[in-house]
Amino acid sequence: MVTVYPACFYKEDDGSYSVTFPDLNYLSTWGNDLKDAMNMAIDCLAGYVYSEWEDKNPLPEPSDISSIDPVEYSKTNFPELEIGECFVTYVSVDVEEYAKNHFEKSVKKTLTIPYWLNKLAMKKNINFSKVLKEALMEKLL
Asked: For residues 42 and 118, what is the distance between their CA atoms, to the nearest angstrom?
């Protein structure tokens, strides 16, 4: 399912871009250039929405793009910042698909264990990946 929210893009003096999502609690990101900023905005939006889904929090309705003035938004919420070139555009992402490729993707890890422990685990048909995953989740969550 595609998720779409408006985002304000602000060009910085060095050519980089700051990006803010007005509907999502000042959710912000940054990119080296416009292309990088858009990729970072997609990643940022996907991560935020995925996290809200995981926590079973409702998402706000996206604002109509025509109702957002990026200059006014910046002056109201970030009065200390200078405003240069800026614009509002929609950022969209298929969060479920993005999560499969970025958040839920497995990574290969190589580790070393004592020979005797390996031998005993192999004898008992232990799934090393499963045990490591369970142990890490117990330790970290």
From this structure: 42
